[in-house]
Write a structure and sequence with these properties.
The complex is a heterodimer. Chain A is built from 12 helices and 2 strands; from the N terminus they run H-H-H-H-H-H-H-H-H-H-E-E-H-H. Chain A is mostly helical. A two-stranded antiparallel ribbon of chain A has the order 1-2. The N and C termini of chain A lie far apart (57 Å). Chain B is mainly α. Classes of the chains: A mainly alpha, B mainly alpha. Chains A and B meet through helix 4, helix 9, helix 11 and helix 12 of A and helix 6, helix 13, helix 16 and helix 17 of B.
Chain lengths: 290, 342
């Protein structure tokens, strides 16, 4: 019976912890399938987490926070698109710069808004999400996998990442497809962040993403740039994270397992997953190229 | 020149941002300058930031030359610095000239090993080096904090830091640069950093290995046909990159503090990306780019005290905008090539 309770709590924790990863990796999918490398997911998530926490607290409503995260995500996505699509800046370099920018701008704003060194005030329990982002995350995966393979605009996205020339030949603007995809990428990843600050926690705290943007990207690669396998990879990483929280303070015989060893578990799992079982994972052909 | 222009644009935009906080950008600029170069003490601190930035900039640049993006300098550096501290704490009886050499060699090996993991995974498993290096950074931080807090903690301090290495390991007594900047952590490793930058320049442009490395970076297909093993080059490049990041052990442990302190690095590994980019991956240029970034970082450190709304985190905004300003240079080059064609 104890075992059952443990399994149940572990699975629930896995689902909760997977939520931000799923949103972010769907964000990554939009961008990368359109041919634009996106290592800025971490910064997008931080932006969404912060915007969500601020608006959620101001309006005392998680839904307003959610809307603010959407808006902030679209804005930062558009900025990213401006740099990588119009100004032809190196995609990885720009992505890292955006991460750095988010890490610098947010403390700057918290200082102005709240005169604090990085955290936002906490939301009341009734103003937080109870479970909604979790459902939305799964719905988003279903929606994207249907849209990607069954609709004309979904096909455009795939072609922008595989054979942009073919898209040009059929009279569709690759530029517009990529712009929309990168903006959507910003929005989804920002929701991933907002599900951290409005669902898993009740405020924004510095660096609260803790590398989840990169894990989401790893999940995307592990999932071969496909929505459902990427979802499965997110669940795997979230399970490692849930296990990590569960294992803290556990003893093996007389030895207490050092907490740091437990904490690095999700990162180790990510590396092993990427190095071990990925098989032939083929990136979209035009990824990172013009 | 274009890069310098990008630098100026980035810095200007960052300074204009301070208007939002109700500050005078010119005033902020003056604070940055005064705090970076205002006195011998300030300059010493600026130089003590410059040294690790040179090492990390070189580390990132080696990756770029081989077509790899090394975001892992932070982790490589962390592992190496802890290793140097560990050697110094665990083997206090080794005599002076040998001791720092042993510690440095151990640091180089550990840094190189941490980089080689990435090179190997990239070459033989096709793993994405950006994600692998980020994950290894987290793992390095975890391992280092365990080792520091559980294995060799400093018994005389509440701070999260290792015990002090034996004095045989420090080159303080022979350190001319340190004498020049009393009471600051500036030390002789600045000289080593400059020497290593020159050595790397020679390696890249005057040796066969260096040529192969650059060849794989600029045209992997052609190099493959020319019989250069891409896999070997990737592993070599990441090992070297890790070793260069590992050199930070010189300035941090052997040159100044004599210990590993958790959080000693204000993200040197990441600022190193900006340094490499600003210098167009030219090792000699990296010396100057690191000095600029070091000055900005030191400059920003006094913003907390001298303004009411702007904190030292502001240096991140400046760095990010400078990277963007320089990265978007592709635009100008692209425009020029287009104009030439038509």
């Amino acid at each position: 019976m104890d075992m059952m309770a443990l399994l149940l709590s572990l699975s629930l924790a896995t689902l909760r912890l997977a939520t931000p990863l799923i949103f972010a990796s769907m964000g990554g999918l939009m961008s990368e399938r359109s041919g634009i490398v996106n290592v800025a997911l971490e910064g997008f998530m931080l932006t969404g987490a912060f915007a969500g926490a601020v608006a959620g607290q101001y309006f005392a409503s998680a839904w307003m926070g959610w809307a603010a995260a959407l808006f902030a995500g679209l804005v930062i996505g558009a900025l990213y698109a401006l740099f990588v699509i119009e100004l032809k800046a190196d995609q990885i370099v720009t992505g890292m710069a955006f991460n750095l920018l988010a890490m610098g701008v947010i403390p700057f704003l918290t200082k102005i808004f709240y005169n604090s060194t990085g955290s936002t005030p906490a939301l009341l329990v009734e103003d937080r999400f109870a479970f909604e982002p979790l459902l939305m995350a799964f719905a988003l995966v279903a929606l994207i996998s249907f849209w990607l393979y069954k609709t004309r605009s979904g096909l455009w996205l795939l072609f922008a990442g595989e054979h942009p020339e073919a898209l040009v030949a059929s009279g569709v603007s690759v530029r517009k497809v990529r712009w929309s995809a990168v903006c959507a990428s910003g929005a989804f990843a920002a929701w991933g962040g907002a599900s951290l600050s409005l669902f898993l926690a009740s405020s924004y705290s510095p660096m609260m993403t803790g590398g989840r943007g990169f894990m989401a990207l790893a999940a995307l690669i592990f999932g071969k740039w496909k929505p459902v396998p990427a979802l499965a990879a997110c669940l795997l990483f979230a399970f490692a994270d849930a296990l990590q929280i569960r294992l803290q303070g556990v003893r093996i015989g007389d030895m207490e397992v050092p907490v740091q060893f437990v904490q690095i578990l999700p990162y180790v799992v990510t590396i092993v997953a990427l190095a071990g079982f990925i098989g032939k994972s083929r990136a979209p052909k035009a990824l990172g190229r013009e | 020149m274009k890069r310098f222009l990008g630098f100026i644009i980035g810095l200007t935009v960052a300074l204009l941002l301070t208007l939002i906080a109700g500050e005078n950008p010119l005033n902020i600029f003056m604070i940055l300058m005064r705090s970076a170069f205002g006195s011998v003490y300030d300059l010493g601190l600026t130089l003590s930031y410059t040294t690790p930035l040179i090492f990390c900039g070189l580390s990132v640049a080696i990756g770029f030359h081989a077509g790899l993006f090394n975001i892992g300098a932070e982790g490589q550096m962390t592992m190496a610095v802890v290793t140097a501290a560990a050697v110094g704490v665990l083997f206090p009886q080794i005599p002076f000239p040998v001791a720092p050499l042993v510690a440095f060699a151990a640091a180089l090996m550990m840094g190189g090993f941490w980089g080689a993991i990435v090179g190997w995974l990239r070459a033989y498993r096709g793993s994405h080096e950006v994600i692998i290096t980020i994950m290894l950074n987290f793992i390095a931080a975890g391992l280092a904090s365990w080792f520091t807090l559980k294995i060799i903690p400093n018994p005389h301090s509440q701070n999260p830091e290792t015990a002090l290495v034996s004095s045989n390991y420090m080159f303080k007594d022979y350190d001319l640069i340190a004498r020049f900047f009393p009471d600051t952590p500036a030390n002789a490793s600045l000289g080593f950093a400059i020497a290593f930058a020159i050595l790397l320049w020679i390696f890249l442009w005057k040796t066969t290995w260096g040529f192969q490395l650059r060849a794989v970076g600029s045209n992997p297909e052609a190099s493959h046909r020319a019989g250069i093993s891409e896999k070997k080059v990737q592993i070599l490049a990441m090992t070297l990159a890790g070793a260069f990041a590992g050199c930070v052990a010189l300035s941090e442990v052997l040159g100044s503090s004599g210990q590993y302190r958790i959080g000693f690095s204000p993200d040197y590994g990441f600022i190193g990306i900006a340094v490499a980019l600003l210098a167009n991956n030219n090792p000699i240029g990296i010396i100057f780019a690191a000095f600029l970034m070091g000055a900005l970082h030191k400059g920003a450190s006094d913003l907390d005290l001298e303004t009411s709304t702007i904190t030292r985190d502001f240096s991140r905004i400046i760095q990010a905008l400078i990277i963007l300003g320089v990265a978007a240079q592709g635009y100008w080059e692209w425009m020029k090539s287009k104009r030439r064609k038509s």
